């Protein structure tokens, strides 16, 4: 409160009181919204803390479904509300909420005072000297900002503004990294990853209770944590925000590796998945930034990539290893930019040089990683493939295709865009990183035909509090700036410039500085990239829930070939084990059939009776077929080709075709992919 000096003049007293009252009214307007509509408008709280941030959106949030019975609204598929509690608790400064009020929530880390000189992580990852005005509330001279990596961007009232502007789904990815925590200079807690994940989950529930209290009690607030797609639909139909918990961490379940030796077991994975599910987690990454005992990662580039590669060595004893890519997809180039993080390496140890033509991680999905993927499918969880190496992503898509499992998510542009159609064909969901409106429009255009083909919406992953830049301002002098106030996409709300304390944000001059500017950024996309992109985004909530719901309803298919009589053109002989045809239909992924070493070979199974067959899965050993056919017959004599390829690459293949009556199924090898014969661990035959 500003001091007021009174003048002792009786004939002026009434005027002074009036002036003071007006001053108090002005201050109340600046420091917090007026309660005039609180008693009648369900979307306005009856007890918002004072002072607090303004929302600067008027009008009732839209409810219900559209004419087709589908929910409407935007989806932020990748956000980190509570990463201020991660990495040792001092990497991201400021809180999402505080019972002590906004002045306590939005203040800088102690070591950033007086001028940001010790904002070390900023200049390690971003360059510059990290200097800034550390004061948050009420002036916010330097933060939050679109290019600040270490300051809170998800204050709850800013998230509220995003909801009021049309967002209806928010994925809160619980995030941390034990290695970054251990090497960072400032911390006030343990670096144990699961301890941090548990805390962030609890704080998400605490935030829900904090908001509920403003609206009169449990269940009444706009922020609703949901654990199944039906709950999410109900919440959105009420006009509220459905919040899903995800996990993005580098060593889930303790599954790090040291010198290529896994530090976890299948029992650890099952225990960890069960715990996360019980916390309410429904989507997660299996690897992030560092190769671990589950999968290899998609690299980071530039100085940040160098810093993370150093962390990779400190964590595992090995640097990233690359190879020439075998397909159109590729991992990010590692780059050779220097980083101050290299000072952490032991004397005499240097980050390797990498060949420009070798851009793919040699590491894919491990056996433990496959076990974790199957464990997530069993629990109906959705798998985030962003950050997985090209090799690991391809293997995951193979697994999902073999089971027709739709629960695959790419939430923030960290997969190769050439995977997009395979994701959509499965029934998965794709969101783009929160790029600037021009770049966002360009990337959206590249996949527009696929969205139309599969009839799906689009999402964005803001990655707020995720140590990344956000859209820069296009400038107030651009030919098509955002003009305030503007209407929300549904047309029912009016959105003005966002005010917190004495700071007013304008997306034209401030860019996407915090989560409250999501509606402004979407308006900028409309102006730059067109209404069509925004329309696709407005269908995002429905598409995300479609993927989630289909994952929940998924039933494991019956393998019609399991235990049935199999035969083959030949079988390799061994003194020590059997490679007979039945080994590929015994339900044991550790046994296999192997043929003689020549091109024209076949394996077939008698299903016992005629079925409508539409899918055949083949789990190849190293000796795979480059060219082969899947053939069907009702009598074992007359065969028809249902599917064929001349570009087999081994691993797990799925042949899909129109449902066809068949009692006999034959895999006919025409050309080997190796110098050996053909070898199959297991063949699955599935009905339409």
TrEMBL record:
Region forming the signal peptide: 1-38
Every F5/8 type C domain range: 553-688
Keyword terms: Signal
InterPro entries per UniProt: FA58C (IPR000421), Galactose-bd-like_sf (IPR008979), Metal_Hydrolase (IPR032466)
Keyword Signal: yes
Keyword Signal: yes
Protein name as catalogued: F5/8 type C domain-containing protein
Species of provenance: Streptomyces antibioticus
């Amino acid at each position: 409160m500003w001091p007021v000096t009174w003048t002792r003049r009786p004939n002026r007293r009434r005027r002074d009181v009036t002036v003071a009252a007006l001053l108090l009214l002005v201050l109340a307007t600046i420091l917090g919204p007026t309660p005039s509509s609180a008693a009648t408008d369900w979307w306005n709280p009856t007890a918002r803390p004072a002072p607090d941030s303004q929302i600067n959106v008027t009008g009732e949030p839209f409810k219900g479904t559209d004419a087709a019975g589908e929910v409407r609204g935007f989806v932020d598929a990748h956000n980190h509300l509570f990463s201020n509690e991660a990495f040792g608790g001092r990497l991201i400064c400021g809180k999402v909420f505080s019972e002590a009020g906004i002045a306590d929530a939005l203040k800088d880390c102690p070591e950033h005072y007086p001028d940001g000189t010790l904002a070390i992580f900023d200049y390690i990852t971003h360059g510059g000297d990290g200097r800034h005005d550390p004061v948050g509330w009420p002036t916010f001279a330097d933060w939050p900002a679109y290019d600040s990596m270490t300051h809170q961007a998800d204050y709850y009232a800013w998230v509220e503004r995003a909801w009021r502007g049309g967002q209806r789904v928010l994925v809160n990815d619980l995030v941390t990294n034990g290695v970054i925590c251990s090497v960072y200079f400032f911390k006030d807690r343990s670096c144990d990853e699961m301890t941090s994940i548990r805390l962030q989950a609890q704080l998400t529930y605490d935030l829900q209770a904090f908001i509920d209290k403003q609206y009169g009690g449990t269940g009444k607030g706009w922020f609703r944590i949901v654990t199944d797609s039906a709950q999410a639909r109900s919440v959105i139909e009420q006009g509220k925000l459905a919040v899903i918990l995800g996990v993005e961490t580098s060593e889930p379940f303790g599954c790090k590796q040291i010198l290529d030796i896994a530090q976890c077991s299948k029992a650890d994975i099952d225990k960890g998945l069960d715990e996360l599910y019980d916390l309410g987690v429904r989507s997660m990454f299996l690897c992030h930034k560092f190769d671990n005992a589950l999968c290899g990662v998609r690299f980071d580039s530039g100085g940040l990539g160098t810093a993370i590669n150093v962390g990779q060595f400190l964590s595992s004893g090995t640097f990233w290893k690359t190879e020439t890519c075998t397909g159109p997809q590729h991992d990010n180039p590692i780059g050779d930019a220097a980083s101050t993080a290299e000072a952490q390496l032991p004397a005499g140890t240097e980050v390797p040089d990498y060949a420009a033509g070798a851009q793919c991680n040699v590491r894919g999905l491990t056996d433990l990683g496959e076990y974790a993927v199957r464990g997530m499918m069993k629990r109906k969880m959705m798998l985030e493939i962003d950050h997985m190496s090209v090799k690991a992503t391809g293997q995951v898509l193979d697994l999902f295709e073999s089971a027709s499992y739709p629960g695959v998510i790419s939430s923030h542009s960290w997969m190769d865009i050439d995977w997009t159609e395979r994701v959509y064909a499965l029934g998965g969901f794709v969101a783009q990183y929160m790029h600037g409106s021009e770049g966002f429009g360009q990337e959206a255009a590249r996949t527009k035909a696929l969205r139309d083909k599969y009839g799906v919406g689009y999402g964005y992953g803001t990655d707020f509090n995720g140590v990344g830049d956000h859209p820069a301002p296009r400038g107030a002098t651009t030919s098509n700036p955002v003009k305030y106030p503007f209407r929300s996409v549904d047309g029912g709300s009016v959105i003005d410039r966002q005010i917190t304390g004495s700071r007013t944000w304008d997306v034209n001059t401030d860019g996407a500085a915090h989560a409250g500017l999501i509606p402004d950024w979407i308006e900028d996309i409309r102006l730059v990239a067109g209404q069509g992109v925004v329309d696709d985004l407005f269908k995002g909530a429905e598409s995300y829930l479609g993927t989630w719901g289909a994952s929940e309803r998924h039933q494991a298919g019956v393998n019609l070939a399991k235990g049935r009589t199999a035969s083959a053109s030949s079988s390799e002989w061994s003194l020590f084990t059997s490679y007979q045809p039945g080994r590929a239909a015994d339900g044991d992924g550790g046994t296999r059939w192997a043929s003689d070493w020549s091109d024209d070979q076949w394996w077939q199974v008698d299903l016992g009776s005629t079925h409508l067959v539409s899918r055949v899965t083949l789990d190849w050993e190293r000796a795979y077929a480059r060219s082969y056919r899947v053939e069907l017959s009702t009598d074992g004599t007359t065969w028809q080709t249902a599917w064929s390829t001349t570009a087999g690459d081994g691993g797990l293949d799925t042949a899909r075709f129109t449902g066809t009556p068949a009692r006999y199924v034959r895999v006919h090898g025409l050309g080997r992919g190796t110098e050996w014969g053909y070898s199959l661990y297991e063949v699955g035959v599935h009905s339409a």
